[in-house]
Amino acid sequence: MIRPRRNRKSPAVRDLVRETTLSPADFIYPLFVHDKDTDEAIDSMPGCTRWSLEGLVKEAGEAHALGIPAVVIFPAIAENLKTSEAQESYNDKGLVPRAIQALKSAHPSLCVITDVALDPYNADGHDGLVRPDSDGNLEIVNDDTVAVLCQQALCHARAGADIVSPSDMMDGRVLAIRESLDAEGHTDVSILAYTAKYASAYYGPFRGALESEPKAGDKKTYQMDPANVREAIRETMMDEDEGADMIMVKPAGPYLDIIAKVKESTTLPVAAYQVSGEYLMIKAASQDGWLDEKAIVLESLTGIKRAGASIILTYFAKDAARWL
Ligand code: PBG
């Protein structure tokens, strides 16, 4: 009789036949930073912190020592620095460039990734510039935004970022950023494109962490419709053509089919972002012991990797690295 259970009979046999293994080397650890001297717990994301520069360097160092190769930094920008043209996003003396410098000088082998988008800096809370169209309706303008994103990417590259990661979903930004970086000699700076980024309710806790909610409207004219899969393939082909080095699907858990299909349609490394809402659901359900946090975290990450993501952005990176 054929008995599939023979391949499950002992830990040793299960180890032999396992198709997917997680490693701390798979993770990118997202970290929040603010321009204050103290570390602050984030109300909307229990267990996460807005770090001071000093706290950021220490936390990143601990993660790196656990085998995590990369961090991505998200800045909480002071309200008085937010403007409708988001000039602070390319201030060479701004918070992100200082954070990159601090991280790279303390941990030269750590890969430092930055998020390229205007929402933390924009008085409107949108990823792009907001302007009235000919009828007076507010519009998120594409091409003028891309010009600012290029400035922002250059600012991060000058400060020493290893990878810039445009999360804005404007058209044509990957090519424009690649050309700007190359023109200034940053040919080694990589682009991890948020390729299939959906207009998702799962980003809510993150926007709380940065106080970056859109002041009006939603992000549906630039982020993708959760109902669509073929559009993700189209974005993948375009980002690959425009020179992305790696591509990303976001969120991760509810979009495993997208990860699998994107993986089939590209030869680039595929990343997936287990976003703040996914984090919070697991945190909330395990707080009172309804779910076993460690088991659920490792299972959710295994599922994301099994679907085809070889890189996972997760707020659980440090915990998971410790558990593995
Ligand atoms: C902003 C950005 C967002 C996230 C990463 N970069 C929020 C948004 O698009 O509104 C979300 C991450 C998360 O929810 O964990 N460009």
TrEMBL record:
The keyword Hydrolase does not apply. Pathway: Porphyrin-containing compound metabolism; protoporphyrin-IX biosynthesis; coproporphyrinogen-III from 5-aminolevulinate: step 1/4. Mg(2+) binds at E235. GO terms for cellular component: cytosol. Keywords: Heme biosynthesis, Lyase, Magnesium, Metal-binding, Porphyrin biosynthesis. Belongs to the ALAD family. NCBIfam families: PRK09283.1 (NF006762). This is Delta-aminolevulinic acid dehydratase. It comes from Oceaniferula marina. The gene is hemB.
